[in-house]
Design brief:
CATH topology of chain B: Formate dehydrogenase/DMSO reductase fold
CATH superfamily of chain B: Formate dehydrogenase/DMSO reductase domain
CATH topology of the domain at 40-122 and 150-283 in chain A: Alpha-Beta Plaits
CATH architecture of chain B: Up-down Bundle
Order of helices and strands of chain B: HHHHHHHHHHHHHHH
Largest sheet of chain A: 3 strands, mixed
Helix content of chain B: over 70%
Shape of chain B: globular
Number of strands of chain A: 12
Largest interface: A-B, 77 and 77 residues
Helix content of chain A: 25-40%
Distance between the termini of chain B: 19 Å
Largest sheet of chain B: none
Radius of gyration of chain B: 22 Å
Strand order of the largest sheet of chain A: 9-1-12
Shape of chain A: elongated
Number of strands of chain B: 0
CATH class of chain B: Mainly Alpha
Oligomer: heterodimer
Radius of gyration of chain A: 26 Å
Number of helices of chain B: 15
Number of domains of chain B: 1
Chain lengths: ~325, ~400
């Protein structure tokens, strides 16, 4: 039995070493991603949104999507969620008598959903064939169907459930908000921000948007203040008493930060925005992968060791046979 | 002693049933390619990866790890007497991986772009999937080449009778394969170590979607250990089944020796998993995750049962217990893999259960494996005589 035990231990050592390699990697550090130099984004202020859905319609025009007629009489465009046919959607929260806007109890509130254009996007990290890319200058997260193999890893991995696939088509592709990059090329702003009558959706440089969100959080409830429309630096403004806000802006820290920010009076969790850690999940997977495969050294060492073992033991076995 | 074709009839109840299932699969696959994924699957934007990914690819390639697991014993631990198990294991591995690869082709929606995963200008080296995809593609080729000697031996049998240049050519091919096979064997152990662990890493980006009992940074280690456990289990499972179905004498003696490795790796998996759960302080999730807590306990319990069964030497040598233990390890580890990809993956507001066509396609894939295995071992020199196998085991005991 001594022989058996020795070999058992040897086997355990090999497997144990493999585990150790895998575990050590977790402590290695991969640099956290930061905002691109000329990052642009959107600020959605739930307290300003009246739920008119002009943004949903404008988005359809700008991105060639078609109405989702979800009622029995097929007369109304009522998208229930993001889908391959709806790249932005307005959802409503309501509780109790739903009398008071932006209150959790007996209140209601609106939330606009679309791609959050993460600083460290899961979809970009997981895509095997670079179909998902993040613009190094503006930070807009784009999709290129010409590269895409349709593996839908991005659909599975996005912590916000944004990318949507066309399951009903033979020639299927993925759809998601690309912050109207085709309009931005022409100097226009995203369609949803362009049409919002109340300035609930604002477009602008990320640094300015973050400052604007901060300004609103500093206002005292009921204090009269000016709110811009369309873009954060617009002269087109309206004046109104400030609402009560949550204590923080959503999107500053979630999974490494996002370029679309949210302000609301109802808790973000209730509006369907998940509570997420500050570190992105993909920073961990990339850390593990880049440590194990750094310069392909570990696989090369493993391969050479095995080559040596096979060579030696194959000869040994041959001799035994003779 | 060298392996011999088993011979016997190609058309039997089993092969007809398998062929029928393959035909059904073919029809459904055609429908999928003509009308899109939605017509045959229940996949949706919450559960975009379903049965095919979780079973055919993630569990299926692990079931194809028999060749890998045996090779480690034969060549790293230098146990030459397990050598007769290598060729049948390689054959089963070849099928496991070919099926995994085919399933991916059926599953990916933009399949005409498939070649992008082999074309460097498209690579995203941050993606765990590119490593898995490349590695599996290369490994499938390696497996085919590793199995090539069995085919060449058969061809050499024909050409020997005819003689002449043709025979000279086959003998040359045989010699070249014989001289270079060690590179393939070494590659055949490196590649699964890489992609089987990466299959675990692939889950890490899913973050909070996966229950903390499964979501851990040591997923790659756990995946490597389940690949090995399943590898040993499938070799034992197949050897027992083959002895029984082809009415060949049992290989119980050598399988008894092999079962110790299976139990050892299974035990290591349980140990690592328990330490990890304790270290991360997630034990309470066993009690707060409803059904998932049972799934977690069930996976581990199956593996534990196998280990306990194999503790006694008497049971280690009994084909019945070998089979039960192999089944327990296999179901425990396969469940672990399916659970981590599918069951423990939760998206609020979404539901998924595979559609009948999805399940039939998966069954069809399994039927391809069974049918292929039967036809090939009947026709090509894959299996050694059981007498030879056990004699080798006895000689080293």
């Amino acid at each position: 039995m001594g022989l058996t035990r020795r070999h058992f231990l040897r086997g355990t050592a090999v497997a144990g070493a493999a585990c150790a390699v895998a575990t050590v990697t977790v402590t290695e550090v991969r640099e956290e991603k930061t905002l691109p130099p000329k990052a642009v984004g959107l600020l959605f202020d739930s307290t300003l949104c009246v739920g008119c859905k002009a943004c949903v319609t404008a988005c359809r025009e700008a991105n060639n999507t078609y109405p989702e007629l979800n009622t029995e009489d097929k007369l109304w465009d009522v998208p229930l969620d993001l889908s391959a046919r709806t790249l932005t959607v307005i959802k409503a929260y309501s509780e109790g008598s739903a009398e008071n806007k932006d209150q959790e109890n007996d209140g209601f509130a609106f939330i606009k959903k679309s791609c959050l254009h993460c600083v460290d996007p899961s979809c970009v990290s997981v895509c095997p064939v670079s179909a998902m890319t993040k613009d190094p200058v503006t930070g807009v997260v784009s999709y290129d169907p010409n590269n895409c193999i349709g593996c839908r890893y991005c659909v599975e991995a996005c912590p916000f459930g944004v990318p949507r696939f066309e399951y009903d088509k033979t020639i299927a592709r993925l759809r998601k908000c690309e912050m109207c990059k085709q309009r931005q090329v022409d100097g226009k702003i995203p369609a949803c921000a362009e049409v919002c009558p109340n300035g609930a959706t604002l477009f602008g440089s990320e640094t300015r948007l973050r400052a604007e969100a901060e300004r609103r959080l500093m206002l005292t409830v009921g204090e009269r203040a000016f709110f811009p429309r369309k873009t954060v630096d617009s002269t087109d403004t309206h004046e109104k008493p400030s609402s009560r806000y949550n204590t923080k802006t959503y999107g500053l820290t979630e999974v490494g930060g996002t370029q679309v920010l949210y302000l609301a009076g109802v808790s973000f969790e209730k509006l369907g925005l998940p509570t997420l850690p500050e570190k992105s999940f993909v920073s961990t997977s990339e850390k593990i992968q880049h440590t194990l495969y750094k310069g392909m050294i570990a696989p090369a060492v493993l391969f050479s060791g095995l080559l040596f073992a096979v060579r030696r033991h194959a000869n040994h076995n041959e001799k035994e046979k003779e | 002693m060298s392996p011999k074709p088993v011979g016997g009839p190609y058309i039997t109840g089993t092969t007809i049933l398998a062929a029928l299932m393959v035909a059904i699969m073919g029809t459904l696959v055609l429908a999928r390619f003509c009308f899109g994924l939605g017509t045959v699957t229940n996949l949706n934007d919450g559960y975009s990866w379903g049965l095919w990914l979780a079973y055919d690819v993630v569990a299926g390639t692990a079931i194809g790890c028999g060749g890998y697991a045996i090779a480690l014993v034969v060549y790293v631990l230098n146990k030459g007497h397990y050598h007769p198990l290598v060729r049948p294991a390689i054959l089963a591995s070849m099928f496991g991986y070919a099926i995994g690869g085919t399933s991916v082709l059926i599953d990916i929606s933009r399949w005409w772009n498939f070649w992008h995963i082999l074309w460097p200008t498209y690579f995203n080296l941050n993606s765990v999937m590119i490593e898995v995809a490349l590695c599996i593609s290369i490994y499938t080729t390696v497996l085919i080449l590793e199995f090539a000697p069995a085919v060449v031996e058969k061809v050499a049998g024909w050409t020997r009778q005819r003689g002449g240049n043709l025979h000279a050519l086959t003998t040359t091919v045989e010699k070249v394969l014989d001289k270079t096979i060690f590179v393939l064997v070494a590659l055949g152990m490196t590649l699964p170590t890489m992609h089987q662990s990466s299959l675990g890493t692939m889950l890490i980006p899913f973050g909070y979607f996966i229950n903390p009992l499964w979501q851990t940074p040591i997923l790659p280690a756990l995946y490597l250990l389940t690949a090995l456990s399943i590898g040993y289990a499938i070799v034992m499972f197949e050897a027992t089944l083959v002895s029984d179905r082809f009415a060949r004498p049992s290989e119980a003696r050598i399988l008894g020796l092999l079962s110790r490795y299976m139990a050892a790796v299974g035990a290591l998996f349980l140990l690592v998993r328990c330490i990890d759960i304790l270290y991360r302080g997630k034990v309470h999730y066993i009690f707060t995750s409803h059904g998932l807590g049972f799934a977690f306990l069930g996976e581990n319990l199956l593996i534990l049962i196998a280990i306990i069964l194999l503790l006694s030497e008497h049971r280690r040598l009994a084909p019945r217990y070998q089979f039960i233990a192999a089944m327990c390890i296999m179901s425990g580890c396969v469940l672990y893999r399916i659970d981590s990809y599918l069951v423990a993956y939760h998206r609020a507001g979404w539901h998924y259960f595979p559609s009948a066509p999805e399940i039939l396609i998966t069954f069809g894939m399994i039927a391809v494996e069974v049918l292929g295995y039967i036809l090939i071992v009947r026709h090509f020199p894959v299996l050694y005589s059981a007498k030879h196998v056990n004699a080798q085991a006895l000689a080293t005991e």
